[in-house]
Amino acid sequence: MVKDTNSSLPRRNNPIGLALVLAGAILLIVAYLVGWTSSNLVLLAGWLMIVIGAYLHIRQQKKREKY
């Protein structure tokens, strides 16, 4: 029989939440530097990416905790 060696390895986290927060922050910084601050769509997209990313990151952290 073949031994499953992957079961002893630690499970890697899916960093989608942090990636969304970082992408949203970069979008807001670029929008400010380029002068797109009057466009509500760009500002809303960056804000939504940060909020959704923070929510996903917190949910993932709570799921991994034992308590």
Notes on the structure:
- The protein has 67 residues and is an all-alpha fold.
- The protein has one domain (15-64).
- Helices cover 66% and strands 0% of the residues.
- The chain has 2 helices and no strands.
- The protein has helices at residues 16-34, 40-64.
- α1 (16-34) packs antiparallel against α2.
- The chain starts with 15 loop residues before the first helix and ends with a helix.
- The model has no long low-confidence stretch (mean pLDDT 85).
Main features:
67 residues, elongated, single chain, 66% helix, mainly alpha
Per DSSP E runs of 2 or more residues, the count of β-strands stands at 0
Q: Quick check: average pLDDT?
A: 85
Number of helices: 2
The major pleated sheet works out as: none
List low-pLDDT spans.
none
How many structural domains can be distinguished in the coordinates? 1
What is the string of helix and strand elements? HH
Strand content: under 5%
Global outline = elongated
Helix percent band:
55-70%
Q: Look at the helices and sheets and give the structural class.
A: mainly alpha
Estimated radius of gyration: 18 Å
Amino-to-carboxy terminus distance: 37 Å
